[in-house]
# Entry
Amino acid sequence: MSEMNIPPKAVIDTRALSKEYVMGEMVVRALREVSISIMNGEFVAIMGPSGSGKSTFMNMIGCLDRPSGGEYYLDGREVSRLGDNELAEIRNKYIGFVFQTFNLLPRTTAVKNVELPLLYGGVKNRTELAKSALERVGLAQRMDHKPNELSGGQQQRVAIARAIVTDPVLVLGDEPTGNLDTRTSFEIMALFQELNRAGKTVVIVTHEEDIAHHCNRVIRFRDGRVERDEKVENPTDAREELAKLPPVEQPVATA
Amino acid sequence: MTDSLRSAISAIAANKLRSALTMLGVVIGVGSVIAMIGIGEGTKQKSLEELEIMGSNRITVSPQRGRGGTGSDNALRVEDVGKLKSRIPAIKEITGVVSSRFSGQSTVKYGAFNKRTSVTGAEPQIQQIENARKMYAGRFYTQEDEAYMRRVAVLGWGVYEELFAGENAIGSTIKINNQNFEVVGVVDYKGGSGWMNPDDQVYIPLKTAQDRLLGTKDRLHMITMQGISPDVLTVIQADVEDVLYETRKSATGEELFRVFNQAESLEAIQTQSRLLSMLLAGIASVSLLVGGIGIMNIMLVSVTERTKEIGLRKAIGAKRSTILSQFLYESVVLCVMGGAIGTVLGIGATNMVAAAMQVPAVINTVAVFTAFMFSTGVGLFFGLYPAIRASALLPIEALRYE
# Structure
């Protein structure tokens, strides 16, 4: 990666970030003064049991929610106190989202789905950019298919194309393989690894250890705090894993 | 903008049945506004046409029967006609009238056919005053016929049809109350109806009628006149009353004469049709309102159904205003489509009902335009609240919504 010659710069830099929810009489402290830096070009997995604060953290760094305290610098800019419209712009230009349930617009072709963020960003040559993003995720042949005509893996590829079409500094995946079988999960992870090798900063939330092992850093949350934050030695290469799986042609026995 | 429009149309197309049912309220609303105004206008036009058939700019004076008390003179005489004519310059034509209507209908006979009808005795000016200028055959009687008290008759179309059934009538002798009259002319079909139907009439010279047929001598049943323009009718009416009351006094102070002023009927027709139009438009507006509530209801359902989609759109950069306009577009497009369908149906309904009621179908472009604008307004108004709800959703909560 060093040959990419990316200057080390924090894409995500949180300082004592905290979030409290009021639920009836109770105050739930979902995040307790979390300070994390994620550098340009990192591939990070966020893990933790439910209620650990990992989803809240994702929402914060994805600018979907505002913190109750602390600061959040996204690509060097303090964004935690911005207004709705500014946050919408930040999400549009700086962040690409990939969700567990794909969240594609139904009855809308792949290419139109991918064009959507460009539309909101007021970009001109939308179709062209959307097509090249779809080519990048290996869906050149499926551009005019609607979500219901695509497999789960293909739908997630469309979602990834939609996430990268604006060339964001950060791609966020919220359990991106949660709804996929093993082979497709590896395919999607291979795609994320490719994006990461090309220089994209990728952060995913997952609760599967083997998926997390594809990343080069794992941050574990517990009770709203960072429990462990460690480098992954020899991350799994998804391409190699795919090669080890039995060929697709063989019928898979289902229970 | 075009993208919002396209996404609105595809959202509408995605739920065809639901969209159609939602639109129905607006369709009915707009359709009924157009049809009701169209039919109201048509009825008004027909009334005006019927009034026109009776002659234009007309004022008619007749005695108020049994009024004024004993000793009051409310009879109209031939000399009054001359007085009015010379004193009131705004009168274009004037004639005294006697009519068998006031003494029971007359029987008109030709050969084996006979018909009970009304016979009008009037000077030849009646042709101008009653707008009977268009002759089907022959001529109207003349001042000479009048002066010589000739037994000549001009038939209305209805009488001619019944007695002669399309045959030549000119020169034929008919019997009116057993007296011989020569037919000199037939007035063309005018298309009137009712008690005063101008087609169901026989015209004879005034003096002939007074002396030979009805025996009214110099008494008149009415004096009818035509003003030089519609604007002077009120003035003429006042002048007529002045002249007539100069020589007469009502013992009890009651009015001796009844003056029928066409301008008043015109106004009455217009007032009536305006009221009718307002009433109908009111009813139609209620259905538009109900249609609008239907739109709001379905848009709220749509917002709830698509909460997750809204969340996604926001997550990838849609601003509040983007979501707001997307949903507003949807309700406006629904309404405009409903309005377009309603307009077509409304025009169809107007034509059908107008044909059934035998009134002219009047498609008022202003009404069409207004109904259309109103339906767009309904879309905006009733779509606004659901759209605001949609745009105000928090992205994380919307994304989590199942």
